[in-house]
Amino acid sequence: MAKTMAWAFLAVFMAAAALPAVDAASDGLGILDQVLKAGGERDATLMIYVPCGIAVLFAVFLWVRVSAIKVERPGPDCIASEASFIELKNCYQTIQIGAKAFLKAEYTVCTAFVLVFGGVVLVLCSRVPNLTATQVTEPYVWKWKVGALTMASFFVGAFTSMAAGYIGMMVAVFANAKTTVAALKDGPAGWTDSFNVCFRSGAIMGFSNCGIALAVLYGLCQIYRDVFTTIQFGQRFV
Length: 238
Description:
The protein is mainly alpha-helical. The protein is about 75% helix and about 5% strand.
């Protein structure tokens, strides 16, 4: 699977690198030219959103692989007793409940702080330098759209960070007991399986968080580019 994902990433980046050549070859082809020639923005969008989507899908695939491990006694030949597995399951469920309670308390405080501080960001970032002809008499002006968009970025970043923290905490708790179960196999298989569970669980956090964060960031850049764009004589000015 790892080799398949590596080849998939390589194919995506090779396709994106070949797009400028396709643009050049499509000159004078009418409708085909209009479809293919979208400039650097199209190339950047492809090279960001496609890998982000692959990263999230790969994280889902790894989650399915890890979740397939049941927190229960594999069979009568297992070296651990049934009572040990009952205690393991109780610890697993208790830690999971405690983690959710902790995140709920933490995110309640964080949400209140973000909402209050968002108002501060709105006011402070709305006072911007005056770039018009009246800047001599009035060097600074109020532009509430700038402040509102800055506040929106602050909100999106804060709540994306909270989502990343929630995913990380839940996956870490989710993997603890499953790693223990995987380690019960005899010989090298126990070491291999337990390591794979740990590694896959960490990859779930890494791929999902990076994919989501990069996609959200680039999406904000695209939205704000459109908000602050003016089109004159068929050309775009930001």
